[in-house]
Amino acid sequence: MKNRNKILYLCLSVLAAQFFISCNQDSIDETNTAIPYEPIGGYENSDDIAADNLIVKCSFEDNITDSKSGISDGNGTNVTYENGVKGKAYKGSSSAFIGYNTVSPALANVKSITVSAWIKTDPHTGGAQCLFMLPKTSDFWGNIFTLIEGTGPADTMLIKNHLQKDVTPSIPWSGQWLVHDGSNVLTNMFGNWKHLVWTYDAATSTYSMYVNGQNLNLPNSIAKRYTNDPAAGGVPYGDLANSDVSKFVIGGFQQHLGAPWGAADGWMLHYSGLLDEFRIYDKALSDNDVRSLYLLENDNR
Q: 253 to each of 60, 88, 175, 213, 282, how far by Cα in Å?
């Protein structure tokens, strides 16, 4: 009887051990199994958004490389890096900028556009800081650029975007400028990371501005322009028309690149803040895509 009990005890011990190993293995398998990301706006990764339309992408991971080669052959001047929204970020200063010597036809001939970037900066005085510029050898103002003025109401950011439209009908914005001043000035933009996106849609000649994924819903006086009243048969102004494109600059004006441009004026300042995930698309992204881009990049995806 004692031997029989010993045998029964041993059998139960073996079964218990096997059960414990099986359960423990299941636990290990569950722990090591990757949990899929929840899609945002139909996307799992920021690079999935309008992937075929992304022509410039600079992530500034301790380098100035554009992974899409819309701009290339670059040289950084006094460029340093700091922690950003995703990995590292470009750190500007009073003398820092990046000059790229080669611009792809995809960017030079862009018709519609989306410019997206994360910025973290503080108020400044004494002039205008340029985030980026697509230069033009035959014009003082260049083709396309974004600048931040150093003046304006307290704690607000006065942004100006410049679009080039040389063909008929030309865009009637004063000097091709889109100015965020007055009631359209941007608020709560300093001291923290902000996702800034602006778009121009050639099909509808509609300009849009987004902050942290939210469309600012600008009034038609700045957002949409036609040759005359659309209700009376007005037509959109159509494609952008860059010309005499040469080089590309991040963190400065074309004048900071030297010849063939003259010396920079005193008010032409380098961008002194942080810049991350700089992107250019050759289309106007939808509201859903802009918001998805903001959320995915903010989630390090």
A: 19, 23, 17, 27, 22
Considering Cα of 288, then 290, then 291, then 293, what sign does the dihedral take? positive
How far the first Cα of the chain sits from its last, in Å, is 66
- In angstroms, the CA 269 to CA 190 distance is 18
Looking at domain 51-298, which CATH architecture does it have? Sandwich (2.60)
Tell me the two tokens of residue 102: 């080669």
84 vs 251: CA distance, rounded Å:
16
Global pTM value: 0.83
CA nearest neighbour of 158 among 192, 120, 185, 124: 185
Using one digit for the tens of pLDDT, what is the confidence trace for 182-233? 888 888 999 999 999 999 998 888 889 999 999 998 887 777 776 666 667 7
Classify 232 as helix, strand or coil. helix
Q: Write out residues in the chain with pLDDT < 50, as ranges.
A: 1-2, 6-12, 14-17, 19-30, 166-175
Cis peptide before 169 (omega within 30 of 0): yes
Model pLDDT for residues 138-170, shown as the tens digit of each residue: 989 899 999 998 876 666 677 777 766 544 444
The two tokens of residue 246 are 């040469």
> Do residues 74 and 98 touch, judged by C-beta distance below 8 A?
yes
Residues 6+ apart with CB under 8 A from 13: none
- Using CA atoms, how far apart are residues 241 and 111, in angstroms rounded to an integer? 7
Q: How much is the pLDDT for 36?
A: 64
| Mode of pairing for the β-strands spanning 268-270 and 248-250 | unpaired
**CB-based contacts of 35, cutoff 8 Å, min separation 6:** none
- Pick the closest to residue 205 from 246, 181, 240 (CA basis): 240
Q: What are phi and psi of 129, to 5 degrees?
A: -95, 135
